[in-house]
Amino acid sequence: MAKENNNPTPKRPKFSSYWIYGVILLFIIGAQFFTGGSGWQTPPDITPAKLQEFIKTGDVNKVVIITNTRQAKVYLTDDALKKDIHKNAQSKSKLMTAQLPQYQLKFGDLQNFEDEVTKAIQDSDASTDVIFDQDNNLFGDILLTILPFVLIIGIWIFLMRRMSGGATGGAGGQIFNIGKSKARLFDEKTDMKVTFKDVAGLEGAKEEVQEIVDFLKNPEKYTSLGGKIPKGALLVGPPGTGKTLLAKAVAGEAKVPFFSLSGSDFVEMFVGVGASRVRDLFKQAKDKSPSIIFIDEIDAIGRARGKNNFTGSNDERENTLNQLLTEMDGFGTNTNVIVLAATNRADILDKALMRAGRFDRQIYVDLPDVRERKEIFEVHLKPIKTAETLDLEFLAKQTPGFSGADIANVCNEAALIAARNGKKAVDKQDFLDAVDRIVGGLEKKNKIITPEEKKTIAFHEAGHATVSWMLEHAAPLVKVTIVPRGQSLGAAWYLPEERLIVRPEQMADEMCATMGGRAAEKVMFDKISTGALSDLEKVTKQARAMVTIYGLNDQIGNLTFYDSSGQTDYNFSKPYSEETAQIIDKEISRIIEEQYKRAIKILEDNKDKLTILAEHLLEKEVIFKDDLERIFGKRPFTKEEEQQLQEN
User: Fold this and answer.
1) Is 461 one of the annotated active-site residues of the chain?
2) Is the pTM for the entire model greater than 0.85?
3) What are the extents of the domains in the chain?
């Protein structure tokens, strides 16, 4: 019976690319040596005039003229090498052999150079030999000829090895790694440190994804009752609301492998690469199941198919989407792989991607309310040294409409402002300055403004403040400034009420307050300027929304021309007739002009107080709510404020 050989098959030695680089280096060094181009073998250069001088003094033993390269090599006598004038040649001679010259020079015309050397020899008593020769360094010429090709081949091999998967006979015989998934794997034992405790707010979204976590931890609890695994969940919401953070928290809570990548990682210039990466991604996820695949910005590949494809050619993005649809719908119920995706453009996604069986549920991640903003501030203020008197509820109320990313930016900006001012802790004023910096831009106190322009700006901003103070539904004023910020020459800061629904009278008051700046210019100077550009843009959008979107206009009636699916392109076609378009234009103009005249009437009735406010603004440059109360008296309570007072 033959004895069994337990010795493993010897592995083939791995070929190292450093051999290639070594060979290339040897070629370069050889070219330097054999062509005489090495720095330590090159004698000093001299001019023809200097050569004639050395010949006349008897220092030159012989001159070798290389006719084919128009170069001359100068050999000195032994006595000349002892002179101080040839110190440079002496130091070089210590590094050179006896066959190498002490000097060299380039010349132009051969006959002229020969005549000059001959004349110098005749004028001197020295015996200098003149020898004519040719450079026949055949090996060096060949080496210089093939060296560029060697370099090109070496660079090509280097690039191929960088792109190669490292095994020419691996799975599928794949040579290049370009079709592999670019997903980053976060290991559940070392990488996933984010949990639901690190996600402030988003209570509704966390409740939705908690079921996914429970399933990954204990799938038998659901499958034993006949329930099926959810294939995927789509996180939809504005930018910066925490969709990616929520997905990481899901992986951290479930303690499973987490594959993270962006939708653009599938896109490549080569045909078929995107689909190949999708297949490889899902193969890796199945091998490590239970696991989570998170595709951020999925709209990069999930856009509705067939749109804007005027050429009718094959679309690589559509092929990638088709492969993604196939992989998601091809899961078995026991693979324990869940796909999470995030986007803020859910309206443009393909309907096949949104159907049940692929993304079974859509989780809307909305902007945080005042309570959730307070919780987000608590999270981001942990590493920051804050003053003990800092009121988080006040900060939450001062940041309406801010996302989680915006609040993180406010905290960081406040810390930078405090450090810039040499403070030991970040206080309330630093946060207010940070909000102003983020919303309005950087202050430009050195901006050159003429006194007349400054007066116009002061009355413009005072007009905003006056009209908003007198209207019931306008947002309460926080402060007014005429210090330029960003692209604006002045600004009025308001604290808008967080409303879920808006009534026509509320929108009318907001438009009237917005037109207060231009109305003040008209009342005080009987002139208007270009300073109301942003105001006009804002009220035009509001009026158009009232007429065409919300159905708040009697002439148009209960109609809306808003398409939530995003299928209508208003640049090419409009969902209404030309007659309706004329009515819409007239109604938009009528609404704006009514509020403009209303603002003028309010300012004319309070012209004296408007003047006092503007002069105070010119003096102080910044005024606050207390200044308006001193000039106008207490602002009348709105119905909502009166109701809150009664409840308290």
Assistant:
1) yes
2) no
3) 36-136, 184-307+316-364, 370-440, 451-647
